[in-house]
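Q: Convert this sequence to structure tokens.
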Amino acid sequence: MPHVSEVADGIYQIEIDEAKTSGTAEPLRCSTVYLIVADGQTALIETGPAVVAPVVLGTIRRLGHDPSRLSYILLTHIHLDHAGGAGTLAHQCPQLQVLVHQRGARHLVEPSRLIEGTRQAFGERFEDEYGPIVPVPEWQVRAVDDGEVIPLGERELRIIYAPGHAPHHMCIYDTKSQGIFSGDALGTPPIESNIVLTVAGFDLDSALESIDKLSQLNPKVVFFSHGGVSRETARLMQSLRANTKAYGDIILGALKVGEGKEQMARRLGAYHSKLIPGEYHLEEHRFEHIIPWYVAHFKRKGVA
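A:
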């Protein structure tokens, strides 16, 4: 059973343990989907991977709403853990529109490159754990861009282009709660050690610019896509920006003196251990999933 809570008026957070859903032995990250209810209209933020689609639909029904009346799915970006279930849900709910940034829209309709990238990232058998990536019918896809406003009952959902984690990444600002659905642009808790999540295509400069842009909204709450919410938004933004930049400074400095991944991981570990002494420690091996994308960024920029 997913964990469901009303995290703001008319906003339900649905947290799903992917490991239990997929039946795999390995613990996978939880998927977080949000149901927004406004004057009888409903919308989803994110879908999670296809494997959780039945859980999402069942939860919507248990909350007293009919999936066949969903108006929208809004995706912060097209990565598997956020949008992998979009095609599955679109086919089961043909009345809805799937909203995605214009740079990612074509990959929902014709997902061959998305599937190949997912296979490279998660392995040949990714479908066994996460479910298939099903094309979204073209007529259900709506490409959006920065500044567009989506009316939903008494609410307005504003599209905020926020690249960095990915070039097709956007956030959604809800006018009623004054909250941001942040995708991966604002990391994950805990606040003190938070950084922008890095994957292939990560761009440090864009990530920092997006943090600054989102900070200017002065949100009252941030709704994360991998569990939790934060109402300490100013501290979140400040810490996130400082840590994300510090990681870059450490890795670039190490590159310039010819240090390898192991030395970089030790340097990052030393920085990290000072953030929450005695309370939180990120094992050095986990930096192996962060370092390559910073390095790739600096090489693209020609500074390393």
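The first strand starts at residue 3 and ends at 8.
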